[in-house]
Amino acid sequence: MYGGPPLAPPRGPPGGPAPYDAYDVGPPAAYRPGPGGPGPYDPYGPSDPYPPPRNGMPPMVALPAAHMGPSAAMHGHGDLLSPYAGGPAALQPLVPVPVPGQYVPAPVAPPAAMPGYPQQPPVSGRRSYAVDQATMGIRVTELHGMSVFAEYVHPAPALKLQQLWDGLGGAPNRLVSLLDDRSWEVLSDLAAPEALAVIDQVAEAMSRQELRNPNAFFMSCAKKYLQAMPPAPRGAQQPMVPDMGEYGRAPTQMDRMVPLAAPGHWDAPLQRGPPAPPAGGMSGGYEYDYGRAPPARGPPGGPPGGMGSPNGGISGLEILPEPAQQRAREAIARHYPAVTEATFDRGLCEGIRRLPYEDTMAVFDELMSADMSAVRNVTAYVMGMVRKRGR
């Protein structure tokens, strides 16, 4: 019973009680209850699950699990011997051995971003000149911040723009900071000699302070070079709509976002040659300016008169030159449905046609950047822009 003399003689060397070694005793005597006071041993207590070693050798319950499998080693089943034979050398951890004929690709780390280069989405069908531009001493971080197309401009014209900005050989010229995305895109389409010629023409006109709209003059200078270029090869992925590129350029992402429309709508390709009169529409045959007959069109869809058009929805875009027609379609694509083809009625287009080329492009630039959410009569709004420049 607790507190009485032990039922078995003390184990250990003679000459006093053996130190606590937890092999066949329970908790220390100080934790044992009993009226007789604590004793040195308790043969009825549970054994210590983690006994200390005796004479440098651990007890059997604490043998290393080198001879046991993973499950037996985890749960401490020392009696479950491994079926492997051959001694400890045969029981070393297995090393994966490739199976003959089996190909395991090595992991490849993704390419790291080059420092100093802005991460911009690639433009389909264009070559990146970023490394060549940096090699020629161009400050690519500043240049690529101008436009997403700046990376695809040949290094020679890109260096020319930087030299003009730095004022090398003359007064500083800020042309590089005035070009819009359309001009950068055209510049990336031009070869190096043509691009340098266009930059020289625009920079010379700017030095004489003759330009109010450098981008419009830039496009007029680049037009003759782009029209002489062969058409760009098509890639595997065709655009969703017919070509709407201006001056021979490839369609932009905005062009591809415009849904397909039936022939005669504003995003259908212009009809060349003598038109055939459509059913219920107007017959062609009248000679207009620029030596061509207008394409045959019926009244476009939508409410009569469109957005503020007083002529029953009949467009007058046919009397405009090709660059102005293209800018009008870009404005329609940007502000649709506030701006439609019917917005450009005959009276508005007659006023646009009388403007000089630079003023015409300035009207469309202002229209592209305008907020149409509060405009009720778009035709009158654009006519105000025309009258302001026609005075």
From TrEMBL:
Where does the source fall among the domains of life? Eukaryota
Annotated region (Disordered), positions in chain: 1-62, 264-318
Where is this chain compositionally biased, Pro residues type? 1-17, 35-56
In this chain, composition skew of type Gly residues spans 304-315
Task: Please state what the protein is called.
Answer: Uncharacterized protein
List the source organism. Chlamydomonas euryale
